[in-house]
Amino acid sequence: MNSEQFLSSLRGIVGAKFVLSGDTERGNFDRDVTGKYQGRSLAVVRPASTAEVAATVKLANQAKVAVVPQSGNTGLNGGAYPGVNENQIILSLNRMNAIRKINPAGRTAIAEAGVILENLHAACAAHDLVFPLLFGARGSCMIGGNLATNAGGSNVLRYGNTRDLCLGLEVVMPDGTVADLMSELHKDNTGYDLKNLFIGAEGTLGIITAAVLKLSPMPKAYATAMVAVTSIPVALKLLNKIQNASGGAVEAFEYMPKDYFEHLGDVHPNLRPPFETPAEVGILVELGAVAPRDASPAADGSIPIVSLLADTLAEGMASGDVLDAVVAQTVAQRAEMWKRREVAFEVVVHRGPSIDTDVAVPLDRVDAFVRQTAQRLRADFPGAEAATIAHLGDGNLHYSVWLEPGSGRAHTNDESEAVFGMIEDVVQAQHGSFSAEHGIGLSKKSTMARRKDPGALEVMRAIKAALDPNNIMNPGKMLP
């Protein structure tokens, strides 16, 4: 089967207007959001149903044409990049955007892979429920990509990663068969846990087309504050104190150091600094109150969960642990606090090409990671600068390096690998992980080769070979 015959067969499956083969119409699909990866696919195929996905994958498997699944294309590691080999198609799931069901009694939702995360949030809110996956790209990222990368975000501290929010999956296998794993059960011990095999696999084992997702009660009130503390260990001490006082109501605990606020001022000069005196260690903390006793206004109009946070921070100020604190009193103030955190991507890119990492270390070793990377950067890369921002409550740090800040010069591959190697050394010394929530894709394949346990890699390769013997599913990603 030649290329034209293959494309003709694809048009017969999904319709001619949903097979994009021209350079212009493929453009936004063939490059990633960072601009780092620019490829060339044979075509972009946009099926509207699981049956069309299955037929497309079956045809591709027979023709030995690679399939690169793509949802919102908001990933940062090249996982949805088609490469430069034209013998591959992008399978876009953006037409599979139905929320099939919301079950308030069971607190579940069934959503297709192309559902935009923010749209799911809105649909759940209508039932006073929340799908508690939250990060800056929620207006464009899609459920399929969230599952394929096991996305994290700001609310992992309370609710867990995407894997923890999923009960069941519908998956199209590399030969085009459909695996119905759409369990709505919280307990199901009938053999291997296949669902979790596909979550985080980045489309290398099959294509997730739909999922059963766990919902939670919508908080009836939030307590949000910006806090300046003396150190990271003190911040973690404060986190534990707030967790104990609130019964585990902390949803987000985000770390923003002084250098981040300085860069933020350059990018958004109209965004007010959070403190009169710049903080070496700044924290965005948010609590969510579900129980009426914590959310219903008191006689004086105060909200109990807000008062609890304010009182706990006041105790911290009295002890000297907390240097400054601002508690949001309005929706607008809360939004302003969150904006400081959610423009992190703009902060990272504003000074030119950066080398970005997404690592995790145990909570009690975050301070050591920050100190050791600062020492190594000064010693190994004089003149370089770094910016750090972290989901401190779960130990996930986003550490970015500019080798020549403001110069606009793109770093070489050797330079990138040298920086990655330095950061990997520190992560390994702290018993951490070189990938926390963004996935592996292309950018971390060399790190996988250097740092992933060889035995684990062999198991992963064996699974890949067993499920995808023709290696058509997102080839070249994840596995070194």
Structure description:
By secondary structure, this protein is of the alpha+beta class. It folds into 4 domains: 3-92, 2-Layer Sandwich (Uridine Diphospho-n-acetylenolpyruvylglucosamine Reductase, domain 2), CATH 3.30.43; 99-217, Uridine Diphospho-n-acetylenolpyruvylglucosamine Reductase, domain 3 (2-Layer Sandwich); 221-341, Alpha-Beta Plaits; 351-443, Alpha-Beta Plaits. It is 36% helix and 21% strand. It has 17 helices and 18 strands. It has helices at 3-14, 23-30, 50-63, 117-125, 143-148, 156-159, 194-198, 232-246, 258-267, 292-295, 304-319, 331-342, 344-349, 366-380, 413-429, 445-451, 454-467, and strands at 19-20, 43-45, 66-70, 88-92, 99-103, 108-112, 129-130, 166-172, 178-181, 207-214, 216-217, 221-229, 250-257, 281-289, 322-327, 355-360, 385-391, 396-402. The strands form 4 sheets. The chain has a 7-stranded antiparallel sheet, sandwiched between helices. Strand 17 (385-391) and strand 18 form a beta hairpin. The longest helix is centred in the last third of the chain and has 17 residues, at 413-429.
Provide a compact summary of the structure.
The protein has helices spanning 3-14, 23-30, 50-63, 117-125, 143-148, 156-159, 194-198, 232-246, 258-267, 292-295, 304-319, 331-342, 344-349, 366-380, 413-429, 445-451, 454-467; strands at 19-20, 43-45, 66-70, 88-92, 99-103, 108-112, 129-130, 166-172, 178-181, 207-214, 216-217, 221-229, 250-257, 281-289, 322-327, 355-360, 385-391, 396-402.
